[in-house]
Amino acid sequence: MGRLLEHHSKQLFKEMGIAVPSYEVATSEDEAQEAARRIGKPVVIKALVPVGKRGKAGAIKFAHTPQEAALRAGELLGITVRHFPVEKVLVEEKLDVAQEWYLSITYDKNKQLPVIIASTRGGVDVEELSRSYPAEMVIHQVDPFEGLPGFRAREIWADLGVGGKLLGAAGALLSKLYATFDRYDAYLLEVNPLVVTTGGELVAAAAVMSVDDSAMYRQPRLADMVQLGSERAWRPLTELEKKMVEVNESDPYRGTARYTEMPGGDIGFMCGGGGGSLLCFDTLVSLGGRPANYSEVGGNPPEAKVYGLTKGILSKPGVKGLFVAHNITNNTQVDVLARGIIRALKDLNIDPVTFPVVVREAGVNDAVARELFTAAGVEYYGDEVTLTEACARMVARMKEVYGEGGRP
Amino acid sequence: MGILIDRHSRIVIQGITGREASMVTRHTLAYGTRIVAGVTPGKGGQEVHGVPVYDTLKAACREHQPDTSLIYVPPAFVYDAVAEAVANGIKLILIPTENVPQKDAVKFLNLARRAGVRVIGPNSVGMINPGERVKLGAIGGDNVERCFVPGPVGVISRSGGMTAETSWMIKRAGYGVSTSVSIGGDALIGSTIKDLLALFEADPQTRAVVVFSEPGTSQEEEAAAFIQERGFTKPLIAYIAGRFTEDMPEGTVFGHAAALISGNYGRPSIKAARLREAGAHVLDNFDDLIPTLKQILG
User: Fold this and answer.
1) Measured between CB atoms, which of A144, A277, A363 is closest to B255?
2) What pTM value is reported for the model?
3) What tens digit of pLDDT does each residue of A150-179 get?
């Protein structure tokens, strides 16, 4: 799931014929001031960061004059909103609001259908909407084969009491929003508020869009808008994480090597697959171990990918040991893993006597892996121990080499 | 016995000529499982390890009457392959493909459900019934018996790799499995934990079920409710990995695509609490699986 910045979502909206406020992107106070002057109206200044609920986080401000716009932009640029530094702001025309509505489209994972939530009460978040005003909400499950024909879209608004000239416009707008959701493989599309202006126009005042990263192969339009791998971090990717994304993407169709840097820690964590990694991380932590990163390696990666990931894991400052473990593999060749890992250890002149390395790799070609690891002086286990036992061995080795407190 | 597949299953592989599908075909035949046909458009008339290949599933069905399909095609082609299987009367579909777009998954899951076709996956490493020597997918690789031997325990795993490790732990405890099913790590899958518990309930070979879970989805909560409604009455042992993710900022995916926490939704601690309330054995330590099984099965 990749979240788009608001100006990207609004660009897509515009291309689909959906009205949005006039806006410009600014990276400095001067640019914000100029943008406000060009817009020629009171403006809204919004931090361009890929997180939700920016209003509550103090990341949305209002300005009546270009001078004030510069001041408000200055307050936002350089601060951090939910772990994301603000490098750009959106300077946007402040609308003359008559009514604020709410509209979102996402997938109902239990019913396995697209779902539209609409309300003529907007400006509050959907949780509060469903808690406080359930009678003023319509929840419509979309038949994925039917899509959202015009009459369905009009029914949704009519059920909320919308009538007159506004009904046709609201129906047409909703059809376009659903078409945007569908066309760009969105996972979430939220317009809150959807503004009815004093002039009777419907304008998507705020736009939040997340797109399905599995569909990027057929969404070239989104390529520059979504940071690959960003769904796996709660903050901008670190330099090391970006490098590891490159390692993974260098051979995208063979195996997976994912890396997430964790705060602190001293155990380099080189594990897989998805479930095995979660289990090993929990187990190391419960035994008092401190993993320095999270990783997932699987799907039979080539040696170069394993080598690149291992080097990355070991390059994080403070890493003083390496734990390598997988569930017993169905198809991943563990001799290939062994070659990549051993090459990385040799390149970095790591001596497994003074730098703890514990390996638990069983599965395809593990007899060869045992020979390779043993010859390299690495403490190796196959299926004679469980994953939990291997985790315990790793934590014990760290204590042997560095003492209880982690220092020799 | 066991669930979903047995020696009477008539298996076809869609996309059989691909590199991985061909390897899986070799391992599956070596294990003793029959594969009646394969399909790859444009490669009709070829053979893969002796299995005849057809251009269309329709042609394969005419000659071999398959009822079970293993779909080994890249993400962009999964929707079409499932639609082809449903259109040709296949009753059980297993999808190993990872990274299938959600929009496509929604469509083919609904298409299959309306036609009464059961889907396992996407993102499933497969399933196996060792008592019948039948496996579907890469599960077990070329050394099936290392992890999978016949016995009284059903396995349901949200992680493909841990399907093998869990079954191996059961063997290490001195038992074996009736059927082990990797249900897929995606947020949108065809058969959930609860769906399979209903099948294991009806299987006389199965005396207990082990579930390997992860953060995300509400499958465990639904399974707990199903137990409380007496839909599943056999002993259930569950391990929920990824407790550490509860301490991380929300909205971060660790593990499979489905492993997303939002508010209370998807939290391992809440899943564990619900399952415990329903009477399941929830393990804090995965190695406790062995003594727990011995205590339950005697």
Assistant:
1) A277
2) 0.94
3) 999 999 999 999 999 999 999 999 999 999
Give residue limits of the domains in chain B. Answer: 1-124, 147-298
Q: Computed from CA positions of residues A8, A12, A17, A18, in that sequence, does the dihedral angle turn out positive or negative?
A: negative
Pick the CATH number of B1-124 from 2.40.160.20, 3.40.50.720, 3.40.50.300, 3.40.50.2000: 3.40.50.720
Of the candidates A111, A123, A183, A120, the residue with the CA atom closest to the CA atom of residue A147: A183
User: For A237-402, CATH number?
Assistant: 3.40.50.261
CATH superfamily of B147-298: Succinyl-CoA synthetase domains (3.40.50.261)
Which residue in the block uniquely carries the two structure tokens 């990824």? Answer: B242
Q: Which pLDDT tens digit goes with each residue over B208-229? A: 999 999 999 999 999 999 999 9
Confidence band (pLDDT; 50, 70, 90) for A257?
A: confident
Q: Do domains B1-124 and B147-298 have the same CATH topology?
A: yes
Residues sharing a CB contact under 8 Å with residue B129, sequence separation 6 or more, in sequence order: B2, B3, B4, B5, B6, B135, B178, B179
The domain locations on chain A are 1-21+96-229, 22-94, 237-402
| Both tokens assigned to B127 | 């399933």
Letter string b/e over residues B253-276, b meaning 16 or more CB atoms within 10 A of that residue's CB: bbbbbbbbbeeeebbbebbbebbe
Same fold, A1-21+96-229 and A22-94: no
Nearest to B232 by CA among B194, B206, B204: B194
- ipTM more than 0.85? yes
Class of domain A1-21+96-229: alpha beta
CA A234 to chain centre: 7
CB A244 within 8 A of CB A309: yes
Q: Which string of b and e fits A24-59 if b means at least 16 CB within 10 Å?
A: bbbeebebbbbbbeebeebbbbbbbbbbbebeeeeb
Kindly state the DSSP code that residue A316 receives in the 8-state scheme.
S
In whole angstroms, what is the distance from residue B98 CA to residue B138 CA?
13
CB A165 within 8 A of CB A200: yes
Tell me the CATH architecture of domain A22-94. Answer: 2-Layer Sandwich (3.30)
> What is the pLDDT at residue A408?
47
Q: Which two tokens stand for residue A171?
A: 């129906």
- All residues of chain A having their beta carbon less than 8 Å from the beta carbon of residue B218 are 110
Q: Which of B102, B139, B218 sits opposite A214 (nearest CB)?
A: B102
Site from B253, B262, B269, B285 to mutate, A interface, most A CB atoms within 10 angstroms? B253
Q: Which residues of A touch B217 (CB under 8 A)?
A: 109
Q: What are phi and psi of A177, to 5 degrees?
A: -65, -40
Give the Cα separation of A194 and A157 in Å (integer). Answer: 13
pLDDT digits (tens, 9 = 90+) for B123-154: 999 999 999 999 999 999 989 999 999 999 99
Are the C-beta atoms of B224 and B274 separated by less than 8 Å? yes
The residue to which tokens 């515009």 are assigned: A14
Give me the residues of B, 145-164, that contact A with CB < 8 A. Answer: 146-147, 157-162, 164
Task: Tell me how far apart the alpha carbons of residues B21 and B296 are, in angstroms, rounded to a whole number.
Answer: 39
